Each structure stands twice: as structure tokens, then as C-alpha cells.
């Protein structure tokens, strides 16, 4: 009688198998949900990156259109959204005094730049750069390339404001001999590195 009772109380094999299958299905569903969620996240990231690239491309095209005339004349360059002006157009060697040609060029940029900045609610960063040659010892105006690049950036910034650019839309920065665009191996390369760049940048706290 005892053996018969024990055999009747044992859990049937099909019930154990059913529980196992239910657990496996549950695990499979969890994995499937995770995979679908991960794929959706990847798709959203890809869509965001694509949108950002399109926005950046549109910004470059808008800037090119705004500066079509000075670009066509070769007086400025546009690279990665940064407007480059050769230092020789703006300043004499080792000087931060703006030349007449440079002031005239800056004045011609005010209109298109101000329209572009206002449409996008952005600011204009004016950056000064030099070559890697040290300041000559007889130069009493600047201690080093950092100071020279800073003064040139300030000179251009002030000239833009004097020509009509609102002071609230522009600021200056200095990079000295850092971030060259050419090798400083010869005069041609050093001349390219002596430059001022102007770049539209988002305002602090802007979502753009």
C-alpha cells in the first residue's frame, strides 16, 4: 500500500516538462524583447546621426551662399564651417594693426554674417593663429605668439563691431601656433598658418 501511495504522489513527467518549456519560452520572450528594444535604440541613434549630418551639411551650404561673393573672389576660404582670412591680408608681419585692405574685407562680411547668425541664433568666434617662429627679441609689443594671436583676434573683433556687427554676437579667442593648417617647414606653410578664422558657434545652453 505504501509503494502504491508513493507512486501516485510523484509529479508526472509531462508536468515537469511543461514547466521547463514554460520557463524556456519566458526566457526566449525576454531575450526577444531585449533584442527588439536594442534594435529600436540603434535605429533611433542612426536616425539622429543622419539628421545631425543633414543639419550640418545644410549649415555649410547656407554659409557658402551667404559668403558667395568673397568666396568667389578668393579673399576668404571656407573649411569645415570656418571662415579663414590670410594674416597677410589683415596684418603686416608681426603686427596687430589692421591694414586698409583687411578692414574693407571685414566690412563686406558684416551683412551676410549678421543675417546668418541672426537666423540661427548663433555667435561668431574670431580666432587668431600664428606660425611657429618665436617672436623676435626686438619686438617690444608682444611677448610670444599667444599674445600676438590674441591681439589680432581682438583687433578683428573690434573692427567687426566698428563696422556694424553687434557686440553681443561676436567674441575673440587665441590659439597661438597651435592647430596649424599646414607644415611650418617653409614660408608658404607658415604664411598659411598666420591667419584669422571666424566660425559660427551655438550659444551656451542652445539645443542646436
Automatic annotation (TrEMBL):
Residues 184-208 are annotated as: Disordered. PANTHER family: LIPOPROTEIN YIAD-RELATED, STATOR ELEMENT OF FLAGELLAR MOTOR COMPLEX. The lineage of its organism: Bacteria, Pseudomonadati, Pseudomonadota, Gammaproteobacteria, Cellvibrionales. Residues 78-204 form the OmpA-like domain. The keyword Transport does not apply. Pfam families: OmpA. The chain crosses the membrane at residues 12-36. Keywords: Membrane, Transmembrane, Transmembrane helix. It comes from the Bacteria. Gene3D superfamilies: OmpA-like domain. GO terms for cellular component: membrane. SUPFAM superfamilies: OmpA-like. Residues 187-197 have a biased composition (Basic and acidic residues). This is OmpA family protein.
Amino acid at each position: 500500500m505504501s509503494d502504491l501511495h508513493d507512486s501516485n504522489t510523484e509529479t508526472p513527467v509531462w508536468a515537469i516538462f511543461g514547466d521547463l518549456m514554460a520557463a524556456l519560452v519566458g526566457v526566449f520572450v525576454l531575450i526577444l524583447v531585449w533584442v527588439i528594444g536594442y534594435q529600436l535604440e540603434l535605429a533611433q541613434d542612426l536616425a539622429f546621426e543622419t539628421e545631425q549630418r543633414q543639419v550640418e551639411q545644410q549649415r555649410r551650404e547656407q554659409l557658402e551662399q551667404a559668403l558667395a561673393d568673397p568666396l568667389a573672389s578668393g579673399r576668404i576660404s571656407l573649411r569645415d564651417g570656418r571662415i579663414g582670412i590670410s594674416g597677410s591680408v589683415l596684418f603686416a608681419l608681426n603686427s596687430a594693426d589692421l591694414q586698409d585692405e583687411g578692414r574693407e574685407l571685414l566690412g563686406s562680411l558684416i551683412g551676410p554674417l549678421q543675417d546668418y547668425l541672426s537666423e540661427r541664433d548663433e555667435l561668431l568666434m574670431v580666432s587668431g593663429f600664428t606660425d611657429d617662429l618665436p617672436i623676435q627679441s626686438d619686438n617690444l609689443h608682444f611677448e610670444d605668439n599667444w599674445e600676438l594671436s590674441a591681439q589680432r583676434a581682438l583687433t578683428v573683433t573690434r573692427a567687426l563691431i566698428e563696422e556694424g556687427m553687434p557686440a553681443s554676437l561676436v567674441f575673440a579667442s587665441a590659439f597661438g601656433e597651435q592647430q596649424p593648417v599646414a607644415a611650418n617647414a617653409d614660408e608658404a606653410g607658415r604664411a598659411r598658418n598666420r591667419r584669422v578664422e571666424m566660425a559660427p558657434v551655438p550659444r551656451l545652453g542652445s539645443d542646436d
